[in-house]
């Protein structure tokens, strides 16, 4: 069984290199940029293709590893006559298999989304991290065990996902990966206002962030919660709100505190949170 790649970017390089080191036979790479596909082929010990058709003929599994906005365009131009009994995958976290391959349903191929839940940031190094990453697959449910077994045999961690849950899955990933950066920026800005540089702020806040993540992973979300919301400390929360000049920062702090309040009540049901809840509700109303 041979695996080929259409698109020679960071995901293609990383998967190709990882597969090549885990007893998976590669056909090679095709890309609009011949330089990229030649380099990817050299990096993975596979072949360079000047024609997508030739790569498809030589491959049993084809990964479309182009930017998300180009996946459907590339898929729509695949030759249906060559796809019989092939397995076609894309690696987008947002697109379902049906969305990407809607125009190929009568080709007798099997279609999947295979998304690594990680940021693939370096085409030459990210493959080293893939055995620690969870892959989420979605697509042809009648044959999904085939692609799941293929990935599992390559020593990857695999979970299946239903198409109707793909948006919420991707939203969760965006919140935990991208939105955390917004919180880091907000906290860094506050440290700047205290006279600290970005570097000094990130060193101090980074240690706090890392320790908190460790607690969440080791102890769970509920048991990791500390701070003024957990203590129902209305006075401190009010001081925090007073210290925020930007209305968007106030809204964000208020809404996040309301989420923490739900966790705090679950953790310490005997504590009276009614005054804190009233403050947060009143603040939220005033900011609308």
How does this model look, in words?
The chain is α/β, with parallel strands linked by helices. It has 2 domains: about 1-160, NAD(P)-binding Rossmann-like Domain (Rossmann fold), CATH 3.40.50.720; about 225-285, no CATH class. It is about 50% helix and about 15% strand. It contains 12 helices and 8 strands. The chain has helices at about 10-20, 35-45, 50-55, 70-75, 95-100, 145-155, 165-195, 200-220, 220-225, 235-245, 245-265, 275-285, and strands at about 1-5, 25-30, 45-50, 60-65, 85-90, 110-115, 135-140, 155-160. Strands 3-2-1-4-5-6-7-8 form an 8-stranded mixed sheet. Strand 2, helix 2 and strand 3 (about 45-50) form a beta-alpha-beta unit. Helix 7 (about 165-195) packs across helix 8 and helix 11 (about 245-265) packs antiparallel against helix 12. The longest helix has 28 residues, at about 165-195. The protein is elongated, with a radius of gyration of 24 Å. The protein starts with a strand and ends with a helix. The mean pLDDT is about 95.
Strand element count: 8
Give the helix proportion (percent range).
40-55%
Shape: elongated
- Proportion of residues in extended strands: 5-15%
CATH fold-level label of the largest domain: Rossmann fold
Quick check: average pLDDT?
96
Broad CATH class of the largest domain: Alpha Beta
The sequence of SSEs as H and E is: EHEHEHEHEHEEHEHHHHHH
The total domain count is 2
């Amino acid at each position: 069984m041979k695996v080929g790649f259409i698109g020679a970017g960071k995901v293609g390089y990383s998967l190709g290199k990882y597969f090549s080191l885990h007893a998976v036979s590669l056909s090679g790479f095709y890309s609009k940029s011949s330089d990229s596909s030649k380099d990817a082929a050299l990096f993975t010990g596979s072949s360079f293709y000047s024609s997508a058709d030739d790569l498809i003929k030589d491959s049993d599994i084809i990964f479309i590893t182009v930017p998300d906005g180009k996946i459907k365009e590339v898929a729509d131009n695949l030759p249906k006559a060559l796809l019989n009994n092939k397995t076609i995958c894309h690696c987008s976290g947002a697109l379902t298999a049906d969305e990407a391959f809607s125009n190929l349903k009568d080709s007798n191929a099997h279609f999947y989304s295979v998304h690594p839940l990680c940021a693939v940031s370096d085409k030459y190094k990210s493959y080293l991290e893939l055995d620690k990453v969870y892959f989420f697959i979605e697509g042809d449910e009648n044959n999904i065990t085939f692609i799941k077994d293929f990935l599992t045999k390559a020593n990857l961690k695999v979970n299946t996902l239903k198409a109707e849950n793909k948006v919420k899955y991707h939203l969760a990933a965006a919140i935990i990966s991208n939105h955390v950066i917004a919180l880091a920026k907000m906290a860094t800005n506050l440290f700047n206002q205290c006279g600290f540089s970005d570097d000094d702020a990130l060193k101090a806040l980074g240690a706090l962030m890392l320790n908190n993540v460790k607690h969440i992973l080791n102890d769970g979300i509920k048991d990791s919660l500390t701070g003024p919301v957990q203590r129902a400390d209305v006075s401190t929360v009010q001081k925090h709100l007073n210290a925020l000049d930007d209305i968007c920062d106030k809204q964000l702090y208020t809404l996040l505190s309301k989420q923490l309040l739900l966790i705090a009540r679950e953790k310490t049901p005997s504590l009276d949170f009614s005054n804190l809840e009233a403050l947060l509700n009143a603040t939220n109303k005033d900011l609308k």
